[in-house]
Amino acid sequence: MKKLIVYYSMLGNTEYAAEKIAEATGADVLRIAPDKAYPDKGAKKFLWGGKSAVFGDKPRLLPYEFKAEEYDLVILGTPVWASNITPPLRTFVCDNKGSLQNKRIAVFTCYSGGGAEKAIEKLRKLLDIQSYEAELILTDPKDKPSEENEKNLIAFCESIKNLK
Ligand SMILES: Cc1cc2nc3c(=O)[nH]c(=O)nc-3n(C[C@H](O)[C@H](O)[C@H](O)COP(=O)(O)O)c2cc1C
Question: For residue 76, what are the CA distances in angstroms to 47, 48, 143?
Fold first, then answer.
């Protein structure tokens, strides 16, 4: 089964997870980013990103190539912002809704402690799917490494590898 990870990361935690998942499952990786980067320092980071997530913004992305026909499974990764998915992932999903409709979808998300389930549920509704092939929630895996994160990462990768 051909797999692609599509993710956005502002501060590196989701990137860390994406790299681990790619290493363990052999998935290809596509990192998306808005063409105008969000502020990533201090209070501005929370203000701008949080507001953008709450309003359901769909910022324009830097050019990327998504060869949907080459993949069976798409693994979407995002930090949690204001109990929601990040705007860049929203743009990707909305811009590729047709191509994603006949794919199997898994999800992973990084957060600090609140709203991950809500974010995953909002993404499920946006994708208009019944359920995910696999789900993973990590607590700041780069900034706060823990046994729990590693255990959950391994279990997620195993379930991806076991998909028929
Ligand atoms: C704008 C903004 C909003 C956030 N909102 C939440 C939140 O609602 N719940 C939470 O647990 N963490 C929240 N966080 C923390 C991030 O989800 C968390 O640190 C994540 O691991 C960051 O991923 P990244 O390093 O890939 O950017 C927020 C961070 C930012 C920048």
Answer: 24, 23, 21
The three-class DSSP label of residue 104 is: strand
Q: pLDDT tens digits, residue range 6-41?
A: 999 999 999 999 999 999 999 999 999 999 999 999
pTM, to two decimals:
0.98
Domain total of the chain: 1
| DSSP 3-state of 81 | strand
CA atoms within 13 A on the CB side of 90: 19
Ligand 1 pocket: which of 8, 47, 80 to mutate (most atoms <8 Å of CB)? 80
Cα separation, 48 vs 33, in Å, equals 15
Q: Write the CATH number for 26.
A: 3.40.50.360
Q: For residue 58, what is the DSSP state?
A: -
Domain range holding 114?
3-161
Q: Are 5 and 18 in contact (CB under 8 A)?
A: yes
- Mapping DSSP to helix (H, G, I), strand (E, B) and coil, where does residue 61 land? strand
Nearest CA owner, ligand 1 atom 20: 111
